[in-house]
Structure formats: C-alpha cells, structure tokens
Amino acid sequence: MLRVFGAASGEELAAMSVEEASAGGGDQREGEEWREKWGGEDGRQRFLLEGSPLDETAALESAVDLQLVLLPLCSTSPLRVSSFNASVRIGKLPEVETMLAKAQDPNCASRDGATALHEAFWAGQVRIAHLLLEARSDTGLADNGGRTALHLATQDSLLELVRLLLDAAADGW
C-alpha cells in the first residue's frame, strides 16, 4: 500500500495499492484532482520518503509511506519582485523556473501593479508566460493602469499570447 500523510498534521490523506499508483500515478487528470484536493499548485507540493525529498522520477515498487508537504509562498520584498519580474522580462527561463520551484508567488506585483505575467506579455516571452500560467498566475489581475495580460496581448497584436490565454482559460488554469 502507498500511503500519503500530511507532514504537519500526520493525517492520512490518501492510500492506494502500488499497482494503482503505478498505473495512474502519472495521469494528468489525477494530478489535477490531487492539487484541487490538497493544494500543491504553484510547484509547492513536495513528497518526502523517510524524511528526504522524493525525486519526481522515482519509481515506487513496494509499499511505502510518504509525507506530503505544502510549502507556503515566500514573502515578496520589492527587491525580490523586481528581480523576478526582470528575469521574466529578459527571458531567463531557467532562473524563473528555479524561483517558482522555490515557492515564488507568481502573482506578486511591482509598484506599478505589474505582475510577472504582465512582464512576460509586454516582452513577448511566450515560453515564460506558459510557465507562469502553469504556476497559476492570475490572468485577471490588472496593473495600476487597469490593463490585464489579455489587454496587453491584444493591444500589441500578440496572437500567440492571446491563444495561450484562451487555451489556459479553456483548460481551467
């Protein structure tokens, strides 16, 4: 049996046979259901096996007990927001991925109200915009001028980014 416990509470959150976990563990729908039930969006969900982080590619071949840890989003100082948004704007994909994996809030805003998603759209950073949407960036947030990411994409005729937003909405991101 594969059993998952909340690390903080010790409460059993899920149990399934190793066969069930192997057959459906990588199913995208099940992963979405898991995130909805226990939270874990934004790359903040970590599994521990005997107190050590479990690698995403690990194969579980026998009965084990796992702990689920949900990391809170980190606090966002103006300097951290500026650094994150600058990395987005200039297209530093690996750096943005690393910051999100370290629980960077994708919705933090600069003084002018611009979020990382705004920055990605202003700069035409399609791959980073996709990554931010996967990290649950809020597409409805407006900057201090009242502009959302969709406003930015349509005013600059960035059709690829408009499609990305429409696909994200259709997928429930």
Automatic annotation (TrEMBL):
Family annotation (InterPro entries): Ankyrin_rpt, Ankyrin_rpt-contain_sf, Multifunctional_regulatory
Keywords tagged on the record: ANK repeat, Repeat
UniProt superkingdom: Eukaryota
Listed name of the protein: ANKRD1 protein
Cross-referenced SUPFAM superfamilies: Ankyrin repeat
Signal peptide: none
Annotated ANK repeat ranges: 112-144, 145-171
